[in-house]
């Protein structure tokens, strides 16, 4: 058996003079949850359409289970697709929706009944078969859409922003459910999204896409803690962004002066720099210690609270530095920062390693 369920090699797709997908290659091992994350217009939906067979690449090859599918029509490919709006048939019952593809294949009624019953059990809705689609909750519709796709036993399941139409609370719940369903079926999922939280929570591997190319492919932890490019650092997670120039480099440290005159010590740069190099600095709000750096190490920035943004566990402050820079910092959940009100002075501690630096 091939090592990869899906193997894409040097895919290119152009629309006139515009290149939507630009020399993209990746391989997905059996049973993996692989997400393609990027902003609108980055090329991720075009890439998905090529995988599904709705668009043909201008260059490159797509292999599923080791066999090229370039000349295989969409309805003959061993893939299935779940859309954002699910496309369930409202005039059919749950059982009829799930059985539709099996009937089109010409399977026997007894086989269809058994397969539908099994897949409803696996998605946790064993008694939903007789229900109409309008009798289901949003989360149940999601699971039925997955069941309808999975009953056909695809080698790869393609999911095109399937949580986009759900409300926030249900979307958070369905992230966990989708991850559990993928583990239950053991099928390779390729998930398209612009929502970094969805990609980070559910995926084994994430590809960050920008302007038709993959900027970085890695585990969620790698993308978050070790971004390879400035785009990944700014797109994955929240970050304060500062512009500056290198003042000195040595001993694993980089001294930087920002455009506003702020003096900072950062860790080693992500790329070659020398004195005078223009750089971008990224600093995550959760990496800032309100009240000073631990053990007195690192940068200690005097600031004044400009605003308090209460959001439960994600509560933050906006702090204004004497240089004029505005910094967003996550508040600790211990209650120690309860006294930080608008206008209060605050010391922000920033370890050099928390400042990720890229040459511009």
Integer count of domains = 2
Structural Rg:
25 Å
Shape: globular
**Topology-level CATH name of the largest domain:** Rossmann fold
CATH superfamily of the largest domain: P-loop containing nucleotide triphosphate hydrolases
Whole-number mean pLDDT: 90
Helical residues, percent: 10-25%
Write the H/E string, N to C: EEEHEEEHHHEHEHEEHHEEEEEEEEEE
Distance between the termini: 45 Å
Quickly name the level 1 CATH class of the largest domain: Alpha Beta
Low-confidence stretches: none
From the coordinates shown, what is the CATH architecture of the largest domain? 3-Layer(aba) Sandwich
Strand order of the largest sheet: 6-7-8-3-9-10
Tally the beta strands. 20
Main beta sheet strand tally, sense and closure: 6 strands, mixed
Structural class: alpha+beta
Roughly what fraction of the amino acids lie in strands? 35-45%
Q: What is the tally of helical segments? A: 8
């Amino acid at each position: 058996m091939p090592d990869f369920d899906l193997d894409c090699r040097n895919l290119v797709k152009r629309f006139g003079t515009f290149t939507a997908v630009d020399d993209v290659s990746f391989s997905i091992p059996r049973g993996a949850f692989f997400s393609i994350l990027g902003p609108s217009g980055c090329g991720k939906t075009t890439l998905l359409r090529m995988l599904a067979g709705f668009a043909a690449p201008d260059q490159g090859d797509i292999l599923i289970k080791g066999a090229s599918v370039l000349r295989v029509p969409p309805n003959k490919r061993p893939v299935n697709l779940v859309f954002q709006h699910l496309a369930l048939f409202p005039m059919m019952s749950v059982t009829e929706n799930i059985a539709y593809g099996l009937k089109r294949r010409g399977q026997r009624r007894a086989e269809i009944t058994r397969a539908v019953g099994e897949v409803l059990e696996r998605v946790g809705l064993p008694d939903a078969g007789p229900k109409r689609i309008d009798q289901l909750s949003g989360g149940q519709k999601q699971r039925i859409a997955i069941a309808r796709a999975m009953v056909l036993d695809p080698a790869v399941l393609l999911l095109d922003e399937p949580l986009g139409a759900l409300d926030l609370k249900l979307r958070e719940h369905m992230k966990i459910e989708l991850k559990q369903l993928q583990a239950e079926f053991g099928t390779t999922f390729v998930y398209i999204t612009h929502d970094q939280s969805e990609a980070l929570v559910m995926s084994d591997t994430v590809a960050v896409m920008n302007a038709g190319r993959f900027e970085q492919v890695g585990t969620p932890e790698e993308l978050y803690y070790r971004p390879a490019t400035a785009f990944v650092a700014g797109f994955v997670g929240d970050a304060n962004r500062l512009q500056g120039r290198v003042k000195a480099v040595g001993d694993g440290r980089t001294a930087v002066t920002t455009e506003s005159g702020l003096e900072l010590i950062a860790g080693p740069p992500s790329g070659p720099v020398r004195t005078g190099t223009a750089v971008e600095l990224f600093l995550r709000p959760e990496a800032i210690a309100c009240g000073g750096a631990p053990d007195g190490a690192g940068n200690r920035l005097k600031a004044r609270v400009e605003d308090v943004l209460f959001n439960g566990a994600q509560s933050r402050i906006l702090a204004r530095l004497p240089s004029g820079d505005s910094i967003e910092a996550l508040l600790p959940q211990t209650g120690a920062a309860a006294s930080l009100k608008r206008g209060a002075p605050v010391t922000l501690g920033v370890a050099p390693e928390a400042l990720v630096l890229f040459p511009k």
